[in-house]
Design goal:
Layout (H helix, E strand, L loop, with lengths): L1 H14 L24 E3 L4 E3 L8 H13 L3 H8 L8 H13 L3 H14 L4 H14 L2 H13 L6 H12 L6
Antiparallel strand pairs: 1-2
Helix pairs in contact: 1-8, 2-3, 2-4, 3-4, 4-5, 4-6, 5-6, 6-7, 6-8, 7-8
């Protein structure tokens, strides 16, 4: 069932117009070349560089954060997050929340999700991760409320919706 839901989400996201950062996310992060700890891949330089390197855009850093999270390298993702220029940006706050939650500090993760949603109430990715955190804690009422918010805010058919709906059905959450 989960594969069917995610396959449908992939097809819908692929066919949909582009979404703003933090509003929808593909099933898997954009592939980036793996680097050793404390470094990220720079297309411009064709090598691994320190995240603070001036040639890296926040979008490049964000792609690396998502890739590291997908590979369960949450501490490395946090190192990259520190290099992003706007720490109050909702997609940055979302991944601070996600990585802290996955590293076991659920309360801090929830605080970051709340900040991300306060910054951008339409951040359906933050809402999906928040809902998945509620699934993990057994608060299915709160998780369903986030699923309703995602749909109400135009997120029907996105990965954010499909992943939370799947988590509610199966109890299995996602690493990206």
């Amino acid at each position: 069932m989960m594969k069917v839901i995610l396959s449908s989400a992939v097809a819908l996201v692929g066919a949909s117009p582009a979404f703003a950062a933090g509003d929808a996310t593909p099933v898997e992060p954009k592939p980036v070349k793996e680097c050793k700890k404390n470094k990220v891949w720079s297309e411009k330089k064709s090598r691994c560089v320190k995240p603070e390197n001036a040639s890296l855009t926040d979008d490049t850093l964000y792609d690396n954060v998502r890739s590291l999270a997908h590979n369960q390298r949450f501490e490395d993702a946090q190192l990259i997050l520190t290099a992003m220029s706007d720490q109050s940006e909702d997609r940055v706050l979302t991944y601070w929340g996600f990585t802290h939650r996955k590293l076991g500090d659920v309360d801090l993760g929830m605080a970051f999700y709340d900040q991300a949603i306060t910054q951008n109430p339409n951040n359906i990715l933050a809402r999906s991760y928040l809902g998945q955190a509620h699934v993990e804690s057994g608060n299915l009422v709160a998780a369903r409320a986030e699923l309703t918010e995602i749909r109400k805010r135009g997120g029907a058919g996105t990965w954010a919706e499909a992943s939370l709906a799947s988590a509610l059905q199966t109890g299995v959450t996602f690493n990206y």
